[in-house]
Structures are given as C-alpha cells and as structure tokens.
Amino acid sequence: MLKRLNLVLAIICVCISMSAQEKIALSLEEAKEYAYEHNRSIQNASIDIQVAERSKWQTLATMLPQISASFDYLSYCGYSMELMGISIPMNPSGTFGATAAVALSGSQVVGTIINDIAIDMSNISLDKTKQSIEASVTKLYVSALAMEKTINLLKLSLANIESLYEMTTNSVKVGVAEQTDADKLSVQVASLQNSIKATERSIEMLYNSLRLQLGTPVDCEITLTDSLDIMTSEEATINLLSKSFELDNNYDYQLLKKNLDMSDMQIKLTVMDYLPKVSAYYQYSAKTYFGQDEGMNMTPPNMVGISFSLPIWSSGQRTTKLQSAKLNNKISQNTFLDTKDALLVQDRQLRFNLSSAYESFEIQNKNIEVSQRVFDNISNKYEYGRASSLEVTNANTDLISAQSNYIQALLELVNAQIELQTLINE
C-alpha cells in the first residue's frame, strides 16, 4: 500500500513538473529584449563595468587619508635597568597608537584617468556584446523560421508525390501502369519523408541554440510569432543600403580609440616615475603601565611628519620603461590606422554582398514559383498518361532543389543584412 502511495505521489510530481514547463511566444524584437535581460554574456559584461568602477575607487582611495590603529603589550618579565647606580624597573606596559597618513603622486592621478578609460571600454564592450547577441538571436530566429518553411514546402511536395504514388499503385493493380513507375515514386516518398525528419532535427538544434542565447531554461517551449517577410522586403534592403557608415558609431572603432587613449596614458604614467612623491602623517600614542609604577616613557604622544622623495638615478630603468611605452604606443597607432582602413573596405564589401544577396534571393524566389508550376503541369500530364514517372521524378527533384536554393538565398540575405547592420551599428 505504501509503495502504491509513493508511486502515485511520484506521478503527481512529474505531472506538476510537466505542467509547470515554461512556454513563451516571442516576436523578433521581443526575443532581443528577452536576451538583453537574461543572456549571461550580457550579464557578465555588465559586471565588468562594476569591476572597473570599483577599481577606479581603489585608486582614488590611495589619495585619501588612511587611518590605522594599533595596541601593543610589552613585558620585560621583571627586569630592571641599572642606570648610574639607580635601578629603574621595566614594568609591563601597553601602548595604543593611531596613525593618519596621506600620500600623493602623479602616478595616482594618471591611474585614475586610466580607470576612467577602462570604464568607458567596459561600457563599449557591453554594447558590443549586446549587438553580438542581438545578431545571433536574429540569425537563429530567422533560421528557425526558414527551416519551418522548408518543412512546409517539403510536406507539400510529399503530399503531391504521395497522391501520385497512390494513383500509380492503383493503376498498377488494374494493369494500366508499370510497377517500376510506382517503385520510382515510392523512393521519392521515402526520400521526402527522410528529408522532413532531418529538417525537424535541425530545427530542434536551432531552438536549443536560441534557448542558450536567450537565457531560457533548456526545456522552455518557444513559439516564434514573426514571419520571414520582416527580413526579406525590398524596402528594408534599400533602407539599409542608404545608411551611411559613420566610423565613430562602430564599436570596434570605439574600442580601438579608447585603446589608443590608454596607450597614451601609459606613456604619461611612465613619465610620472620621474616626478617627486609627497606623503604626510600624524601619529598619536598613549602608554599605560597597568597599575604599576610608571617607568621610563620615551614615546611622544603626538607626532607629525612630512616626506618628500625625488627619484634621481635608476641606472636607465625608467628611461627604458618610457621607451617601451612609446614603442607600444606606436604599435597601437598603426593597428588603429590599419583597422580604420579595413573597416572602410569592409563597408564597401558588405554593401556589395547585400546587393548581390538580394538579387540572388529575388531570382530564387521566381525560380521556386516556376519550378512549382512545372511540377504541377507534369503531375497533371502524368495523371492523364501524357508524362512518364521519370519526368515527374525529375520535376520533383528540380522543385526540391529550387526550394533548397530559395531557403539558402534567404539565409544569405539575412546574414548580409545583419553583417552590415553590425558594422554601421544600425
């Protein structure tokens, strides 16, 4: 009885777990917003900003007063000091001390500026991460829609071939058609069924990748509410091609500029090693003898000090360090200029790619319409005995090839759009 009760409870728990499975329906824009909030790479990039901000405050704190306190206990174990025939007891004592100190140098000031640049770079990296995740979500979203459309097209072709196969099988039974014709069509049916299953597995892989990008649970059921028309209209392509490329809007360019600023500040940081450093402190001390007679107390209660240090000779260490910083800065400048030219060339190439991809998509869109009409025409002729099974098979193969080329052209168009959007930060 107890075993049955446990089994029932286990079944109930499983049912509750299955019913609690998360389900979400997302448009493309909603998918992007969802990823902004839940994607872990974006979360990590946000944390990097916080780390950079705290690093800045660590540097600022070194320029502010530092206060410390201490307590020391000292016992000479009954020892007495003899001085000019006088015995001076060395009684147990405790000393409380408090010290306030502040130190200033040019390196600290430059370090704060470097921290500001690091914060700016972290913010740019966050925006770049969001852009990268947005591009990945868009590609996966559209790819999933494209695969679903592929399945619909394949199922339509399968229904047509199955209808012809059934008709041919019946014709074979009454002796008006050859068995080889039915066999050829049966192979086509099996091939289409296998293609549908393979495409369904591909879709599941795409949805799993989309779940990772969105940051959803692995068992979350996702429904896509947009259609492919949002990415394949002529107007969208023309509008994108009309957008000019502003280098300052590109995140890679922004990061390189900040990296160049960082390199300049590294030179200034090295120069600060030649400048003096100033520090000051105040110390308070109080001593007690724990009820014993007061012994010799040579500790002043208050003390103030100022330190001024000037580097004079380092055997060429600072000079070599400065030269290395200048050489690294030259490398950064060359990298910056090379990347600037590369981005301008990339802009031209991506615009060419997008124009070519759209033209190819238009051609394949017309090709699939023509192939469908040809297949329908051959199928009608076959039904009336005016076309062979080989012609039907060839027409079906051409139709499937046209469908595949259409989907491939569509994905290339979407990828070309995303690449240009990423470059111009549109």
Question: How would you sum up this structure, described in words?
Answer:
- There is one protein chain.
- By secondary structure, the chain is an alpha+beta fold.
- The chain has two domains: 22-61 and 112-274 and 315-424, Outer membrane efflux proteins (OEP) (Up-down Bundle), CATH 1.20.1600.10; 65-104 and 276-310, no CATH class.
- 69% of the residues lie in helices and 13% in strands.
- The strands form three sheets. Strands 2-5-7-8 form a four-stranded antiparallel sheet. Strands 1-6 form a two-stranded parallel ribbon.
- A hairpin with a 2-residue loop joins strand 3 and strand 4 (86-89).
- Helix 2 (28-38) crosses helix 4.
The CATH homologous superfamily name of the largest domain equals Outer membrane efflux proteins (OEP)
Radius of gyration: 39 Å
Shape descriptor: elongated
Helix content: 55-70%
Instruction: Work out the count of structural domains.
Output: 2
CATH architecture assignment name of the largest domain: Up-down Bundle
- Using the coordinates above, name the CATH class of the largest domain: Mainly Alpha
CATH topology of the largest domain: Outer membrane efflux proteins (OEP)
Give the tally of β-strands: 8
> Taking strands numbered 1, 2, ... along the chain, how are they ordered across the largest sheet?
2-5-7-8
- Strand share of the residues? 5-15%
Task: Specify the biggest β-sheet.
Answer: 4 strands, antiparallel
Layout of SSEs?
Blueprint: H1 2-19, E1 23-26, H2 28-38, H3 40-61, E2 66-74, E3 80-83, E4 86-89, E5 93-104, H4 106-173, H5 179-214, E6 221-224, H6 229-232, H7 234-242, H8 251-271, E7 277-288, E8 302-309, H9 317-383, H10 389-424
Parallel strand pairs: 1-6
Antiparallel strand pairs: 2-5, 3-4, 5-7, 7-8
Helix pairs in contact: 2-4, 3-4, 4-5, 4-8, 4-10, 5-10, 8-9, 9-10
